[in-house]
Every structure is written in structure tokens, then in C-alpha cells.
């Protein structure tokens, strides 16, 4: 493998990482919407549990960015 192939492979990996990061952010945004909805329909216990999980996932994702 020459350096051009290495560079292309690294760029492909970077694009894939970015795609997964964007998907995870989108999923967390959707989960935040669900939490709000559950609160509106008077399901606060479920909303709190999901929100705790969402916050833990967000912490882990942010910790991985460093």
C-alpha cells in the first residue's frame, strides 16, 4: 500500500466516523423530543428514566470526542 492509498483509507474512515457521529446526535435529539412528549402526556417517570439514559449517553459521546 502506498501513501496515497493510506490517505484515501484514512479519509474514508474519517467520513464514516463523522456519519456515525451525526447519526448519534440525531438519535439523541429525537430522544430529547420523546422525553418532552412523555412529560406532556403525563408520563414523568418514563420521561425521567429516558432522560437520565440520554444524558449518560451524551456524556460518553462527549468524553470520546476528547
Shape: elongated
What's the β-strand tally? 0
How much is the radius of gyration in Å?
18 Å
Largest pleated sheet: none
User: End-to-end distance, in Å?
Assistant: 30 Å
Percent in helix: over 70%
Share of residues in strands: under 5%
What structural class do the secondary elements suggest?
A: mainly alpha
Q: Supply the number of helical segments.
A: 2
Short note summarizing the structure:
By secondary structure, this protein is mainly α. Helix content is 91%, strand content 0%.
Can you describe what's shown?
This protein is mainly alpha-helical and 66 residues long. 91% of the residues lie in helices and 0% in strands. It contains 2 helices and no strands. The chain has helices at 3-40, 44-65.
Top keywords for this entry?
66 residues, mainly alpha, elongated
Describe the protein's topology:
Layout: H1 3-40, H2 44-65
Helix pairs in contact: 1-2
